[in-house]
Amino acid sequence: MRKLILPLALLISACSTSSFDKAPPRAADLAAGDVIAVGQLENLGYESATQPGDLLGSGVMTARFHVARVEIGELPNSSVDVTYFGHTYFREDATFRFHLRPRPEGGYLICRSPNSAGFVCD
To answer: What domains are there in the chain, each with its CATH number?
Structure first.
């Protein structure tokens, strides 16, 4: 049993720090203008969206997404303003892979991953 402790600890640690969405939409599944990109967030603001009965509290966050790589689609700059929904900010020290949808008023929405909370872009 002692021989398994270190490998199990490393495996659990690796799983908990992985930030990439392993099953992104295919280009054929995306709406016109949608983008799949990898990068890091710089959080800017929070607006409460808590509803009655929401014990955890929810909000709409704004951030600047510093793009390291675009996998599908095109972005106008290497950093774009984004909006996302959640209970707390995304980490700023982690790399994320996001499905982005353009907003009519400018910037992009971060679409939720399948079977998770957030803005539904399906």
So the answer is: 22-110 (2.40.50)
